[in-house]
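Archive transcription. Copying these from loose printouts into the bound notebook so they stop getting lost. Printout 1 of 2:
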Amino acid sequence: MSNDDHYGGGGHGEVGGTGQTRTRLPDSPSDPYGTPRRTPRPSRGLITAVGVVVLLIAAIAFANQSPDAPANTATNKPPTDAATSPTGTQPVTGKSNGIPKGFSQDEQGAQSAAANYAVALGSDGMFDSNRRRGIIQAVYLPEVAAARQGELDRLYSDQGFLSRIGLEAGGKAPKGLMFVSRANPAGTKVEKFSGDTASVSVWSSTLFGLTGEGSKNPVSESWHTNTFELKWANGDWWVTDFSQQDGPAPVGRDQRAATAEEMSAAVSQFGGLTYAR
């Protein structure tokens, strides 16, 4: 079983350098300065400021364009609604075992539920027997949870699987190392919606591995799309099933890989997020 089989970002300088100005009279044959005025060249800071303003105006214009305006593409199809645009609806305030709960019975609520469930099922909590039980009970429909509990317990306690990813019995990281398993949703899409059932895909990146000196399984990034089958019951959305496929994965940038110390610090200092549409 591979790693992917579990589911579980001073002051401003003065133009010209002095901040002072000099008043000149219009050019004339008797100009006391003796030479014609040269057209002043804009300073580097001014050029940068103008460039930023132009980019800002372009960004605002793009963000405010009507969804009905034709897209500038070869097919000239209108753009769809922005997939990550805010709706103005406040995130849920309820929680179960630390997982957001109480989503609305609409497409937005189904997307929020799927994104948060992706985070929970992709967390390191799935490797701890007590935390895993709480996650399963909070995410899966009760009758489905009862059936999946034993299956997931066998999966996450399999010593062969744990050894391949560098963990000890009970899903513990070796001494001196930190285990990282964190899903980071990049977007959601409603595949089907019928009021009390929904199928929602969550595109996300995942950080997975062991960080620390001597780690043979350093933290790496992968991309997946997980499709959740959801059912509305007891005032909330619940998972009844899900499937996973690789990608789409973006082209990697030519960036320096973090050291073990840097990665450990980042994981410790940057907490996870609550996702809501």
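Printout 2 of 2:
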Amino acid sequence: MLLSPKYKFLFVHIAKTGGTSVRAALQRQRWRDPWALPIYLCNRFSHLSGHRLAVKLPRHAKVIAAKELLPHEVFASLFKFAFVRNPWDLQVSSFHHIRRERPQFLGGHTEFADFLRWKLDPQRPYQYHLDTSIELQSDYLIDLHGRVVVDFIGRYERLVEDFATACGHIGITPPSLPHRRQATDRRSDYRAYYDEQTAELVARHFARDIALLGYRFDPD
């Protein structure tokens, strides 16, 4: 999550949706904010001292965290936005990310289908790096009453265009988005990773996201 009191925006960062590129592109605006340095120093002191101070919203916090912690008038004044991604594609991206950077969390499952079944098994012990990628994206966008409280939902599938739209709302010229990291060994079409059973497994687990965000296994 990225908050700018000066530019009055709140970026809700959902994992594996292009958010790292968005955050990097907005860094210049972040450091132009007069609150950025005090927040940074307090956060560093928090880590160094071992006492966690609530001076920074976590990277992958849900919008409800900001809504509950910020004064009502401050939250209402912010332009709140997030990016979402096709759930089937997101799971393929997550698999390659974990296999490349945290293979110890594969649980011995080196093939996508086996890993997906294991990851979505409700009996599997909790693991942050795994469970973050199977949280519902819709949960990042809603308040305690289930109402969507972000002002703009961009799509990973049209990241450049939707990022420009968000920047227009913020009132800044869209900075260039850094190149997104791509797994060199992944197939370009996520559908090639699925059979009927694994596609249905994702459809059931992410049914609320699919209904709210309008995603389908076969895009239009």
